[in-house]
C-alpha cells in the first residue's frame, strides 16, 4: 500500500521537476537572429526611376551650362565625345549669339536601355521623344566610369528618320548586357564596325571596301550621305572647279570610345565617336571661306585663305547583327558637328593617329 | 504526510509554472522594439551593414546615424555591389549582425589606402586635406539622406541584397554647396570626421510561446497537487469524523490515545491496526453529518490507503482532540492540541464553529486569528479549503468568507466595546461614517432654521451662507444649493 502510493508520487514529482526545468530552460533566451541575405537579384544596375533622375540631372547640367555659357559647368554630368561636342556647341552659340545649333536633348523618354553590368564602367541608354520642334528622337548614352562617379552624358545621336531600332530586353526586369568593344559574337566587333563605318563615311559607298557590310538608309540621310553630299555640293560648284579646288575627307573611329549594348536578337547597338576632317584647297590666289555658319564662328576673325580645314567630332550609332547573320550593319543615327576650323591645313590632324586619310 | 508534501510541492510547482508562463507574457516579455547600436572605432568614416542586417529582426527598420555636433552625416541604402564598389579601398566598419539584443557586432575593414586615409585625417600634413568620402549624390542609391548631426531613415526590406552605408562627411557646410556634387562639398578645418554611430530600430512581433504551455503544465501540476491534497484531507476528515463521533459518544480512550500516540511514534504499525476502526468511524461520522458528505462514504475505500500515511494519522487525532480540549478532556490531548493549534489553526477554528455554530462568542477561545489561518502553503486554494472545511464541520451550511469576516468584526467589536476611543478608531479604520448628527450642528446659529436636522451638506451650505452674510431665509429656501451658490459666486 505505502509503496504503491509512494512510487507514483515520486514519479509524479520527477515528471513535474523535469517539466518545470524544461520550461524554465526553454524560456531562458530567444535566439539572436543572424543576417540571412537574399540571393543577389539579377536585374538592371539602375532602376527606371534612377535613370529618369540621371536624365534630369544631366539635362539640368546641360541647361545651366548653356544658359551661363560656361562649358566647364558641363563637367559634372557630361563627358566623352558628348563633352567635346557640347563644349563646341556652347562656345559657338556664345560667339554667334545663336543657340539654335545646340542640340536639344529632351528629357521625355521613349525607352530606356538599362545596364546589368555590376562592374564599372556602366552604360545606360535612353531613346528620347522627338523634340519640341519635332526634331528626330535622340539615342543617348550615359556612362558611369566608376562607383564614385555619377552617370554622365557620354554620347548622343539623332536617330535617322525611318530607322527601326532593334529590340532590347525588358529594361525594368532584366536589363541589357553590355558588349565589349572587341566582342566577337557579332558580325563585326563594335570597334571594327565603327572603323569600317568611318571608312565608309570618308570614302563614300562607291569607293569603300566595307560598303557591302552596311545597309545605308535609302531615303534618309545618314552620316555617309551627309558627308558625301556636302563634299559633292562643294566639288560640284562651278567656281570650285574653276579654282581647281580639292576637297579631301578623312574619318577615323576612336578605338577607346566605344560602347555597345546587347539587343534581344544577340546583336548589339554600338555607339562611338569618329574623328573627321575635311581639307579644302583651291588655287594659290584663290580664296575659300567657311562653308557653314558654325565654321565661320569657329574660325573667328581669321582671314580666308586658299585653304580650309574643318574638324568634326561625330557621334554615331550602329546596329551590328549577331555573328552568322546575313543582316547588314545599319547606321541608326549620327551627330555631325564641326569642332574646329582653320584657314590652313595643319600637319597634324585629328585623324592621324588612326589611319591615313583617304 | 508524503502525499501532502507531494501535493504541496506539486501545487507550488504548478503555481510557479503558471506564474512563469504569465511572466513570460508580461514582465519577462521582450520589448516590442529592438534597438541595437553600433559604435564603430577605428579608421574610416564609413559604416556599412552587411546584406541582411537591415531586415534582421523585422522587414521595417529605422536607422539613425549620428555624428558629433557640427558635423554632417549621410545615410544611403544601395545594392551590395554598388556600395561595395563605392567603398572601393577605403577603410570602413562592417556591421555584421547582432552581438546581443542591444548591440550590433562590427568588424573593422582596413582599406588598401590606409596610409593615405590616415595622412588625410591628419589634415595639415597634406597640401590639401581630402574631404571624407561622401556617398551622397550618387545615382546608384535607392535612398539617401543627409543632414547635420543626425539622420533617421526608415527602410522596408525588399528582395535583393540591400546594404546601408552611413558616412560622416565632415563639418556641416555653412552654405549649400552647389548641386549635390560630392566633390564640391569641402570639409572645413573642423575636427576630423569619425564614423557615425549607427542605431537600428526594429519593431518586433514578440511571441509568447511559453505562456500557454507553462500555464497548461502548471495547471496540470496544480490539479494533481490539489487532488493529492484533497485526498489526504479527505482521509483526514474521515479520520476526524470518526474521532469526533467517538468523542461525542463518550469515545473510548483507546481511539484518542492511539490517535495521539501514533504521530509520536510515527510508525505505520501503530496505525495499521487502526484501519478497520477508521472505516467504521467514517461511516459513523457520515451518518451523523446527515448525509451532507456522502462523498466521504464513497471515498471511504480510499481511506485505508491514506490512513497508512503519517499525515492522516497525525491529523485525525488532533482535530478530534481539539473539541476535547475545549471540553476539558484528558491530559495528553492538550499537548497535541496546542501543537496543532500552532500549525493548523484552521482546523481548530472549524471544529469550534461546528460545535458552537450559532454563537460567535466561543470563537475567541478557538484562537486569536482564525481568519488568516487557511493553510499558508496554499495561497490559491483558500476558497476550496474554506469551503470544504466549513462544509464538513458545520455539516449543514458552509460558512462563507463574508460570514467569517462579519463574525470576526463582531468579535472585534465585542472585544472593544468597552473602550469608546478604540471603537472610534476602529470605525475610522473601517471607514464607517458616523450617522449620529454632530452636536455642533445643533449649537450653530442656524439651529433656529427649520432645516436644523438637515444633512451634512445642508449644514455646510448654511455655514457658508452665514460666513458670507446671507440671510437664514435664503438658506432655508435653497437648502441644497451648495454648488449653485458657489457658481453664482464665481459669476
From TrEMBL, chain A:
<feature type="domain" description="DUF8094">
    <location>
        <begin position="43"/>
        <end position="341"/>
    </location>
</feature>
<dbReference type="InterPro" id="IPR058407">
    <property type="entry name" value="DUF8094"/>
</dbReference>
<dbReference type="Pfam" id="PF26366">
    <property type="entry name" value="DUF8094"/>
</dbReference>
<feature type="region of interest" description="Disordered">
    <location>
        <begin position="336"/>
        <end position="358"/>
    </location>
</feature>
<feature type="compositionally biased region" description="Basic and acidic residues">
    <location>
        <begin position="346"/>
        <end position="358"/>
    </location>
</feature>
<protein>
    <recommendedName>
        <fullName>DUF8094 domain-containing protein</fullName>
    </recommendedName>
</protein>
From TrEMBL, chain B:
<feature type="compositionally biased region" description="Acidic residues">
    <location>
        <begin position="113"/>
        <end position="127"/>
    </location>
</feature>
<keyword id="KW-1133">Transmembrane helix</keyword>
<feature type="compositionally biased region" description="Low complexity">
    <location>
        <begin position="244"/>
        <end position="291"/>
    </location>
</feature>
<feature type="compositionally biased region" description="Acidic residues">
    <location>
        <begin position="175"/>
        <end position="191"/>
    </location>
</feature>
<feature type="region of interest" description="Disordered">
    <location>
        <begin position="169"/>
        <end position="200"/>
    </location>
</feature>
<feature type="compositionally biased region" description="Low complexity">
    <location>
        <begin position="439"/>
        <end position="456"/>
    </location>
</feature>
<keyword id="KW-0812">Transmembrane</keyword>
<feature type="transmembrane region" description="Helical">
    <location>
        <begin position="210"/>
        <end position="231"/>
    </location>
</feature>
<protein>
    <submittedName>
        <fullName>Uncharacterized protein</fullName>
    </submittedName>
</protein>
<feature type="region of interest" description="Disordered">
    <location>
        <begin position="235"/>
        <end position="491"/>
    </location>
</feature>
<feature type="compositionally biased region" description="Low complexity">
    <location>
        <begin position="380"/>
        <end position="398"/>
    </location>
</feature>
<feature type="compositionally biased region" description="Basic and acidic residues">
    <location>
        <begin position="400"/>
        <end position="414"/>
    </location>
</feature>
<feature type="region of interest" description="Disordered">
    <location>
        <begin position="107"/>
        <end position="140"/>
    </location>
</feature>
<keyword id="KW-0472">Membrane</keyword>
<feature type="compositionally biased region" description="Acidic residues">
    <location>
        <begin position="481"/>
        <end position="491"/>
    </location>
</feature>
<feature type="compositionally biased region" description="Low complexity">
    <location>
        <begin position="352"/>
        <end position="370"/>
    </location>
</feature>
Amino acid at each position: 500500500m505505502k509503496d504503491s502510493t509512494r512510487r507514483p508520487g515520486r514519479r509524479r514529482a520527477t515528471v513535474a521537476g523535469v517539466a518545470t526545468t524544461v520550461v524554465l530552460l526553454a524560456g531562458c533566451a530567444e535566439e539572436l537572429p543572424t543576417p540571412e541575405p537574399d540571393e543577389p537579384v539579377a536585374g538592371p544596375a539602375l532602376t527606371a526611376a534612377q535613370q529618369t533622375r540621371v536624365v534630369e540631372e544631366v539635362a539640368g547640367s546641360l541647361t545651366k551650362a548653356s544658359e551661363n555659357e560656361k562649358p566647364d559647368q558641363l563637367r559634372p554630368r557630361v563627358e566623352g565625345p558628348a563633352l567635346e561636342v557640347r563644349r563646341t556647341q556652347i562656345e559657338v552659340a556664345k560667339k554667334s549669339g545663336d543657340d539654335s545649333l545646340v542640340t536639344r536633348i529632351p528629357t521625355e523618354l521613349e525607352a530606356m536601355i538599362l545596364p546589368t553590368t555590376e562592374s564599372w564602367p556602366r552604360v545606360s541608354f535612353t531613346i528620347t521623344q522627338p523634340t519640341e520642334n519635332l526634331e528626330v528622337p535622340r539615342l543617348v548614352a550615359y556612362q558611369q566610369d566608376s562607383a564614385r562617379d555619377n552617370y554622365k552624358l557620354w554620347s548622343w545621336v539623332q536617330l535617322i528618320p525611318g530607322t527601326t531600332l532593334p529590340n532590347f530586353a525588358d529594361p525594368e526586369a532584366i536589363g541589357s548586357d553590355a558588349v565589349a568593344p572587341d566582342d566577337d559574337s557579332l558580325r563585326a566587333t563594335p570597334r571594327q564596325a565603327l572603323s569600317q563605318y568611318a571608312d565608309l563615311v570618308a570614302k563614300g559607298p562607291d569607293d569603300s571596301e566595307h560598303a557591302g557590310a552596311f545597309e545605308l538608309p535609302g531615303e534618309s540621310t545618314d552620316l555617309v550621305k551627309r558627308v558625301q553630299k556636302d563634299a559633292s555640293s562643294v566639288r560640284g560648284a562651278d567656281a570650285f572647279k574653276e579654282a581647281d579646288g580639292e576637297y579631301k575627307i578623312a574619318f577615323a573611329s576612336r578605338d577607346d570610345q566605344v560602347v555597345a549594348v546587347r539587343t534581344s536578337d544577340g546583336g548589339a547597338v554600338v555607339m562611338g565617336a569618329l574623328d573627321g576632317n575635311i581639307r579644302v584647297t583651291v588655287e594659290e590666289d584663290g580664296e575659300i571661306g567657311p562653308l557653314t555658319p558654325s565654321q565661320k564662328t569657329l574660325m573667328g576673325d581669321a582671314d580666308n585663305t586658299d585653304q580650309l580645314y574643318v574638324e568634326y567630332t561625330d557621334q554615331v550609332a550602329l546596329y551590328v547583327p549577331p555573328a552568322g547573320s546575313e543582316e547588314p550593319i545599319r547606321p541608326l543615327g549620327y551627330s555631325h558637328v564641326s569642332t574646329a576650323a582653320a584657314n590652313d591645313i595643319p600637319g597634324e590632324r585629328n585623324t592621324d593617329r588612326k589611319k591615313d586619310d583617304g | 504526510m508524503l502525499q501532502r508534501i507531494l501535493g504541496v510541492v506539486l501545487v507550488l510547482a504548478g503555481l510557479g509554472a503558471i506564474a512563469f508562463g504569465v511572466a513570460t507574457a508580461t514582465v519577462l516579455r521582450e520589448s516590442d522594439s529592438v534597438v541595437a547600436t553600433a559604435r564603430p572605432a577605428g579608421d574610416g568614416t564609413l559604416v556599412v551593414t552587411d546584406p541582411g542586417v537591415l531586415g534582421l529582426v523585422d522587414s521595417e527598420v529605422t536607422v539613425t546615424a549620428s555624428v558629433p555636433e557640427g558635423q554632417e552625416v549621410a545615410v544611403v541604402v544601395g545594392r551590395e555591389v554598388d556600395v561595395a564598389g563605392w567603398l572601393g579601398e577605403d577603410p570602413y566598419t562592417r556591421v555584421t549582425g547582432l552581438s546581443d539584443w542591444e548591440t550590433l557586432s562590427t568588424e573593422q575593414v582596413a582599406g588598401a589606402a590606409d596610409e593615405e586615409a590616415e595622412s588625410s585625417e591628419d589634415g595639415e600634413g597634406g597640401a590639401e586635406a581630402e574631404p571624407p568620402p561622401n556617398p551622397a549624390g550618387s545615382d546608384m542609391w535607392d535612398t539617401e539622406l543627409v543632414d547635420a548631426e543626425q539622420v533617421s531613415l526608415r527602410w522596408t526590406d525588399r528582395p535583393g541584397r540591400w546594404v546601408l552605408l552611413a558616412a560622416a562627411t565632415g563639418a556641416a557646410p555653412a552654405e549649400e554647396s552647389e548641386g549635390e556634387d560630392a566633390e564640391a562639398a569641402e570639409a572645413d578645418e573642423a575636427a576630423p570626421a569619425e564614423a557615425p554611430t549607427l542605431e537600428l530600430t526594429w519593431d518586433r512581433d514578440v511571441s509568447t510561446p511559453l505562456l500557454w504551455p507553462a500555464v497548461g503544465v502548471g495547471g496540470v501540476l496544480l490539479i494533481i497537487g490539489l487532488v493529492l491534497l484533497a485526498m489526504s484531507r479527505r482521509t483526514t476528515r474521515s479520520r476526524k469524523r470518526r474521532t469526533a463521533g467517538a468523542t461525542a459518544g463518550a469515545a473510548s480512550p483507546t481511539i484518542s490515545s492511539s490517535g495521539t500516540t501514533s504521530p509520536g511514534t510515527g510508525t505505520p504499525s501503530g496505525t495499521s491496526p487502526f484501519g478497520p476502526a477508521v472505516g467504521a468511524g467514517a461511516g459513523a461520522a457520515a451518518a451523523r453529518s446527515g448525509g451532507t458528505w456522502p462523498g466521504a462514504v464513497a471515498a471511504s475505500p480510499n481511506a485505508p490507503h491514506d490512513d497508512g500515511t503519517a499525515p492522516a494519522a497525525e491529523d485525525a487525532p488532533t482535530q478530534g482532540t481539539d473539541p476535547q480540549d475545549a471540553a476539558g478532556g484528558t491530559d495528553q490531548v492538550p499537548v497535541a492540541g496546542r501543537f496543532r493549534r500552532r500549525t493548523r489553526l484552521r482546523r481548530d477554528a472549524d471544529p469550534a464553529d461546528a460545535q458552537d455554530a450559532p454563537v460567535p462568542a466561543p470563537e475567541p477561545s478557538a484562537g486569536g486569528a482564525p481568519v488568516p489561518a487557511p493553510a499558508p502553503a496554499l495561497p490559491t486554494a483558500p476558497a476550496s479549503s474554506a469551503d470544504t472545511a466549513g462544509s464538513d464541520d458545520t455539516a449543514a451550511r458552509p460558512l462563507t468568507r463574508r460570514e467569517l469576516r462579519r463574525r470576526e468584526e463582531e468579535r472585534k467589536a465585542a472585544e472593544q466595546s468597552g473602550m469608546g476611543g478604540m471603537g472610534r478608531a476602529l470605525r475610522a479604520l473601517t471607514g464607517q461614517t458616523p450617522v449620529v448628527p454632530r452636536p455642533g450642528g445643533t449649537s450653530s446659529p442656524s439651529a433656529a432654521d427649520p432645516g436644523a436636522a438637515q444633512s451634512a451638506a445642508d449644514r455646510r451650505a448654511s455655514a457658508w451662507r452665514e460666513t458670507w452674510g446671507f440671510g437664514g431665509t435664503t438658506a432655508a429656501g435653497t437648502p441644497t444649493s451648495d454648488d449653485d451658490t458657489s457658481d453664482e459666486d464665481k459669476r
